């Protein structure tokens, strides 16, 4: 039996994961639960006729790995869902029209947010720094075009701390959206192109603002191109290392905030204490959401869900916002910040989500 099918069939339907699944929590629909998604995966891999509900079930998964973390059978639901999406593509049932629009944008404009390439560097204060380094600061599509204050503050913090890095003027997309939509042929092409470019520039380390870019480079790229010549890090890890012996550099600014753990950074990489320590060195009093650290709830943007099932995404995001008792929330993910701010605006909530380097920059002399 195919391994994915075997894994999906090993589900005992104990239901332990369902209550932790954000899409099930906000809808109560079995088809939008891990059990529903495993059933859909079985249909896909057994070559059965696929209903529209099953297509939705698989494409509405946030790939947040929360079910994986609680499953007593060790079933990797997220992996099974992503493999099922590529099987749907093989069977001519994907990508969905909404996903195709984003993919076409990535191919035409080099980013997933329909940004105009000539505006890519609008976030950059001053001239483009034409310099070589073996470390690339990778801004990502959200940082470059949408959550530009994240890009600006990340850049300025690293410069102020004397960190050696280079930028790419025409950076391009990491391709995670294409990969997670199941369009593996296109994703592989893009991954290879990016890796060739990084290698030709002598890049040995990539520092990402976005945990989704980080996950893509670190885990999806090696699946396709084999061992990488560069290591992959999140900027929070780098800033934490730079400041841990020099924390007196930071001026304490009194504020009460809630730190929101992005799933790919907290659950995926176990980076939970570094951002909290950084924020407390900046003088912040931290409050916690009911679900935090490795058990944090996805913001609602993961797995490409925000682009295709916007209402569902907004419901999950609102649920996360309601878990924060403070108006001010800080995230280490530009995509989480964007999704949560959009939900706050739509729901006329006064909560505001800021990218973490904005706070660090405020505290640096
Ligand atoms: S990965 Fe997240 S959204 Fe998908 S089934 Fe698991 S808990 Fe639900
Ligand atoms: S926790 Fe694991 S075994 Fe239980 S229903 Fe969820 S996926 Fe199936």
Describe the 3D structure:
This protein has 365 residues and is of the alpha/beta class. It folds into 3 domains: 3-90, Fumarate Reductase Iron-sulfur Protein, Chain B, domain 2 (Orthogonal Bundle), CATH 1.10.1060.10; 97-239, no CATH class; 241-363, Rossmann fold (3-Layer(aba) Sandwich). It contains 19 helices and 7 strands. The protein has helices at 3-9, 22-27, 34-45, 52-59, 66-70, 77-90, 97-109, 140-146, 148-160, 176-180, 184-200, 211-225, 235-243, 263-269, 273-281, 305-308, 310-323, 334-346, 356-363, and strands spanning 135-138, 205-208, 231-234, 255-260, 284-287, 328-331, 352-355. Strands 5-4-6-7 form a 4-stranded parallel sheet, with helices on both faces. A 3-stranded parallel sheet has the order 1-2-3. One iron/sulfur cluster binds at residues 20-23, 34, 37, 61-67, 77-78. One iron/sulfur cluster binds at residues 11-17, 34-35, 67, 70-71, 73, 75, 77.
Helix and strand arrangement:
Elements: H1 3-9, H2 22-27, H3 34-45, H4 52-59, H5 66-70, H6 77-90, H7 97-109, E1 135-138, H8 140-146, H9 148-160, H10 176-180, H11 184-200, E2 205-208, H12 211-225, E3 231-234, H13 235-243, E4 255-260, H14 263-269, H15 273-281, E5 284-287, H16 305-308, H17 310-323, E6 328-331, H18 334-346, E7 352-355, H19 356-363
Parallel strand pairs: 1-2, 2-3, 4-5, 4-6, 6-7
This protein binds iron/sulfur cluster (2 copies).
Distance linking N and C termini: 61 Å
Rg, nearest Å: 20 Å
The percentage of residues in β strands lies in 5-15%
Which consecutive residue ranges, at least 5 long each, have pLDDT under 50? none
Summed up, the helix count is 19
Give the biggest sheet: 4 strands, parallel
The total domain count is 3
- What general form does the structure show? globular
Tell me the series of helices and strands, N- to C-terminal: HHHHHHHEHHHHEHEHEHHEHHEHEH
What is the helix content? 40-55%
E-strand count: 7
């Amino acid at each position: 039996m195919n391994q994915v099918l075997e894994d999906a069939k090993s589900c005992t339907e104990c239901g332990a994961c369902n209550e932790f699944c954000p899409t099930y929590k906000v809808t109560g629909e079995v088809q939008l639960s891990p059990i529903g998604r495993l059933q859909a995966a079985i249909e896909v891999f057994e070559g059965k006729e696929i209903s529209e509900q099953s297509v939705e079930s698989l494409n509405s998964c946030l790939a947040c790995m929360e079910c994986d973390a609680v499953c007593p059978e060790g079933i990797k639901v997220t992996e099974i869902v992503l493999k099922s999406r590529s099987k749907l593509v093989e069977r001519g049932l994907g990508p969905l029209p909404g996903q195709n629009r984003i993919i076409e944008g990535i191919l035409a404009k080099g980013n997933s947010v329909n940004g105009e390439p000539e505006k890519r560097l609008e976030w950059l204060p001053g001239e483009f720094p034409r310099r070589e380094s073996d470390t690339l600061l990778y801004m990502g599509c959200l940082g470059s075009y949408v959550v530009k204050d994240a890009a600006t503050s990340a850049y300025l913090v690293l410069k102020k701390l004397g960190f050696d890095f280079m930028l790419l003027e025409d950076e391009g997309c990491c391709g995670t959206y294409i990969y997670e939509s199941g369009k593996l042929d296109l994703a592989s092409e893009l991954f290879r192109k990016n890796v060739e470019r990084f290698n030709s520039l002598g890049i040995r380390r990539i520092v990402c603002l976005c945990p989704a870019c980080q996950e893509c480079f670190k885990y999806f790229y090696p699946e396709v191109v084999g061992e990488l010549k560069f290591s992959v890090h999140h900027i929070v890890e780098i800033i934490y290392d730079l400041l841990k012996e020099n924390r007196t550099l930071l001026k304490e600014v009194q504020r009460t905030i809630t730190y929101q753990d992005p799933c790919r950074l907290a659950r995926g990489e176990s980076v939970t204490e570094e951002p909290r320590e950084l924020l407390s060195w900046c003088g912040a009093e931290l409050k916690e959401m009911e679900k935090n650290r490795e058990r944090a709830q996805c913001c609602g943007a993961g797995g490409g869900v925000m682009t295709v099932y916007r209402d569902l995404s907004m419901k999950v995001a609102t649920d996360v916002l309601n878990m924060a008792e403070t108006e001010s929330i800080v995230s280490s993910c530009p995509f989480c910040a964007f999704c949560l701010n959009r939900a706050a605006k739509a729901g006329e909530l006064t909560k505001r989500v800021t990218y973490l380097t904005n706070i660090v920059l405020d505290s640096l002399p």
